[in-house]
Amino acid sequence: EIVMTQSPATLSVSPGERVTLSCRASQSVSSDLAWYRQKPGQAPRLLIYGASTRATGIPARFSGSGSGTEFTLTISSLQSEDFAFYYCQQYNNWPPSLTFGGGTKVEIK
Amino acid sequence: EVQLVESGGVVVQPGGSLTLSCAASGFTFDDYTMHWVRQSPEKGLEWVSLISWDAANTYYADSVKGRFTISRDNSKKSLYLQMNSLRSEDTALYFCARDDGSNYVFHYWGQGTLVTVSS
Q1: What residues contact B8, with CB distance under 8 A and at least 6 apart?
Q2: B13 Cβ neighbours under 8 A, 6+ residues apart
Q3: Contacts of A53 in chain B (CB under 8 A)
Q4: Distance of CA A12 to CAs A73, A85, B34, Å?
Q5: Using CB atoms within 10 A as the burial measure, which of A11, A71, B23, B26 is most buried?
Q6: Could B103 and A49 be called an inter-chain contact, meaning their C-beta atoms sit closer than 8 Å?
C-alpha cells in the first residue's frame, strides 16, 4: 500500500495569507495526485488532480505542484471558506488501491 | 446537475449485514466507474471499492475484501454496497463517488450515510 503523509497536521493562518500544504508518498505516484477540501458537515470537494490541474469551478488561488513523492498545494490568498480540512489522494497503483493522506486542518489564527 | 444520494445507513450489531444504496442523477450513469469511500475519526478517509461502468470489474480495499460486495443496476441508476460480517472498525460515514471516466479521482460525492457497528 502507498502511504500518504501530510504536513503539518494543523496550520493557523490569517485571512489573506498565502499557505502551502505538503503531501508525501511512500513511493513514486508520478503525477497521479489529487487534493480535496472538506468543510465541516460536508463531503470532500475536488480541488486539484494530476498534481496541478484545477477541477471545474475551482478558483485560481488554488495551485498544485510536484511529482514523484513530493507534492504541495498552495492557496495564494486565504478566504473565509478555505478554513477547512485538506486531503491528498494518490491513484497511481494497479490494481487500484487508492489512498488518502491523514489531512491538514487550516484554522483561523 | 450531478447528484448522488446515499441511503441505508443504520446501527447494526457486530457480525451483522447491511446494504447501502446510492441513487444517481444528472449524468449518464452507465458511462462511469463508481466508488464507495468511507470516513471515520480513527482512520480518516478510506477508499472502499470501485465498480466499472459495466460491472465487469470490481476492486476492494484489503480491509473489506471478502466481506463487502459492490454492485450496480444501470437501469435504475443505482450503486450498492453489500456489507457482511461487520466489525466495529467498519463504523464510518459512507460516501458514494464518481470519477471522471479517465482516472480514479473523485469528482463528485454524495453527502454520505452513517453506518454504526455496535452491540
Answers
A1: B18, B19, B20, B21, B113
A2: B86, B117, B118, B119
A3: none
A4: 16, 12, 36
A5: A71
A6: yes
- Tell me how many residue pairs between chain A and chain B have CB atoms under 8 A apart: 51
A21-35, A88-102, B34-48: the lowest-pLDDT one: A88-102
Cell of A10: 494543523
Confidence of residue A96 (pLDDT cuts 50, 70, 90): confident
- Write down the pLDDT at residue B101: 83
- Pull the grid cell for residue B36: 464507495
The C-alpha atoms of residue A40 and residue A60 are separated, in whole angstroms, by 23
Kindly determine whether residue A99 and residue B110, on different chains, have CB atoms separated by under 8 Å: no
Q: Does position B102 have pLDDT exceeding 90, yes or no?
A: no
User: What is the Cα–Cα distance from B113 to B77, expressed in whole angstroms?
Assistant: 18
